[in-house]
Design a protein that fits this description.
Blueprint lengths: L62 H10 L31 H12 L4 E9 L5 E9 L3 E6 L5 E6 L2 E6 L4 E6 L6 H4 L5 H4 L1 E8 L2 E8 L7 E8 L4 E8 L5 E10 L18
Antiparallel strand pairs: 1-2, 1-11, 2-3, 3-4, 4-5, 5-6, 7-8, 8-9, 9-10, 10-11
Length: 278
């Protein structure tokens, strides 16, 4: 069964490209807050974008919870020091730290240089739900425009962008929904050349330890303005986490680890079968 979802049905939310925090097995993302829990459904609809927080979860998470989520991603290991023959062992060098917090212009320049410094990326991700649960999977990116979120079982969803469209597929329900790639808030992963200050509105910058946090607003996402926080490791020079808050105030966070910008992903990861729509 295939669906070509009408865009007005998603006008109240932004494209967050991730699963919601409801039941894991083939659970639709279209879970709206309600006064009472909904009764179990025997037939489930295809998962639309974006994910919406389940009922009873209250306001968006606090900064403390976000910090715990970011800390859950494994930190990169430093290589062991090389000791030449007939020489005394040397203590490993301490990671360099920024001497002072970066200004807004410096932070934007640092992030722009990072995103424009690679054309391919793959690694592991952990998605944190607002109720404390988490989902895991693999992320593949080939710029411009190609991306794949591949969730590990028992989740049956996958999200694929082929440079033109974004497809949300459910392997168990055999459904596929298509959306415009231009309305996703994850432009920093997909554009060929990214300029955060030109393509978004930078609303804040802060540095805590080695982590640079850059707050953005993207007014071109479906349903209104999406608020995005990028958490960047200044020492490892890697993106560690992004947090997307949709126009309704609901939040999805994704933490990254084991990132590889050298290996080229298999092109089969980015194929959308449009015949299923006809």
């Amino acid at each position: 069964m295939t669906h070509l979802s009408p865009m007005p049905a998603l006008a109240a939310a932004a494209l967050a490209l991730a699963l919601a925090s409801g039941p894991v097995l083939a659970q639709p993302l279209d879970i709206k807050p309600a006064a009472q829990p909904a009764a179990p459904r025997t037939a489930q609809r295809p998962i639309p974008l974006p994910p919406i927080r389940p009922p009873g979860l209250g306001t968006p998470r606090t900064d403390a919870v976000q910090a715990d989520a970011a800390a859950a991603a494994p930190a990169p290991r430093a290589p062991a020091p090389v000791v030449a023959a007939n020489s005394e062992p040397r203590a490993p060098a301490k990671p360099s730290k920024p001497s002072a917090p970066l200004s807004k212009a410096e932070a934007v320049e640092r992030l722009n240089a990072y995103f424009n410094g690679f054309s391919t990326l793959q690694g592991d991700f952990i998605q944190f739900a607002a109720d404390g649960r988490r989902f895991e999977g693999k992320l593949y990116v080939q710029r411009p425009g190609k991306m794949r979120f591949e969730y590990r079982p028992p989740v049956t969803m996958e999200v694929v962008a082929d440079g033109t469209s974004v497809a949300i597929r459910d392997r168990k329900l055999a459904t596929q929904d298509l959306y415009s790639i231009g309305q996703t808030p994850l432009k920093f992963l997909l554009k060929e050349q990214m300029n955060l200050e030109r393509d978004t509105t930078v609303t804040g910058v802060s540095t805590k330890g080695d982590i640079l946090s850059l707050k953005l607003e993207d007014r071109s996402t479906l349903g209104g303005t999406s608020k995005i926080t990028l958490n960047f490791d200044l020492t490892a020079n890697e993106l560690r986490q992004w947090v997307v808050i949709d126009p309704q105030g609901y939040e999805t966070s994704v933490s990254l680890y084991n990132l590889d910008t050298q290996r080229r992903p298999d092109q089969k990861n980015f194929v959308i079968d449009y015949q299923r729509v006809l």
